[in-house]
Amino acid sequence: MPVVVTTPAETTNLVSLESALAYLQITNMAQMQGLDALISSASAACVSYLQRPLALQEYRERIRVRGRVTAINLSIGPIAAIRSISVGGRKVVALDELSVDRLNARIEDILPVPAGCGFPHHVWDVEVSYVAGFLLPEMDDPEKNDADLLPMAVTPLPDDIAGGCLGTIQLLRCGQGRDPLLKTESVQGVGSTTWQTMDPSVGALSPDAVAALDRLSLAADWMA
After folding, report:
1. For the segment 70-126, what is each residue's pLDDT rounded down to a tens digit?
2. Were both Cys, which of 8, 60, 158, 164 would link to 208 (CB 3.0–4.6 Å)?
3. CB–CB of 132/100 below 8 Å?
4. β-bridge pairing 4-7 and 57-66
């Protein structure tokens, strides 16, 4: 089954209003108009480009594993906590923290090793309840749960992702009300202004945002 969100994030904005105000050097109320919407739009564009959520929230995921594989790759990361795991309907009662690659969302040695050396017919249905994603600037630290198989350890949103989002907000703000086909505007007796336009093929993100998001990968992206 697809990944199911069981507890949604309290916010999905990748940057705070205060950080956007400082980055854009906004000092009066008139300039603040529409900034909340730009923050939401830029944050959503980053998530859309990455094709998975970035905000810390709780998931339930079922994975069918065949053959001799003894590890699983989760669809969302980084892993903050693992609530529970069941393999073939049986609950896992203990988990070695060293077997979990939090950043790449991979759990090693969670499945039984198939006996014998013949053709592998083994099929395992694994169900995992877990918390994953980044702690965003306006989020509260989640409470720890002693019953978790893997204790809570959150990862703050990387600075380059936040910076890319801020750059996207700036480009969105500069492009408001302008013809997207134009990059230079001249006023007689005043001078000319040149600005950067965003590439629609990458979701209208700033180049810094694209570069930062391209560096985010999970084991599921590159491992079988």
Report:
1. 889 999 999 999 999 999 899 999 999 999 999 999 999 888 765 544 445 678 899
2. 164
3. no
4. antiparallel
At how many degrees (to 10) do helices 159-174 and 35-50 cross?
A: 120
User: For residues 25 and 31, what is the distance between their CA atoms, to the nearest angstrom?
Assistant: 10
What is the distance between the alpha carbons of residues 10 and 89, in angstroms, rounded to a whole number?
31
14, with CB counted inside 10 A (0-12, 13-18, 19+), is buried
Identify the three-state secondary structure at position 63: strand
Q: How would DSSP label each residue in 20-45?
A: HHHHHT--SGGGGTTHHHHHHHHHHH
Phi and psi at residue 207, to the nearest 5°: -55, -35
Cis bond upstream, residue 151 (ω within 30): no
- Tokens representing 7 are 């507890």
Per-residue pLDDT at 67: 76
pLDDT tens profile 151-181: 999 999 999 999 999 999 999 888 665 544 4
Q: Kindly report the CA angle at 114 between 112 and 119, in degrees rounded to 5? A: 150
Instruction: Spell out the residues 6+ positions from residue 39 whose beta carbon is closer than 8 angstroms to its own.
Output: 13, 14, 15, 17, 20, 165, 169
State the pLDDT at residue 32. 82
111 and 124 in contact (C-beta within 8 Å)?
yes
- What residues form DSSP beta bridges with 185? 193
For the chain, the farthest-separated pair of C-alpha atoms sits apart, in whole angstroms, at 85
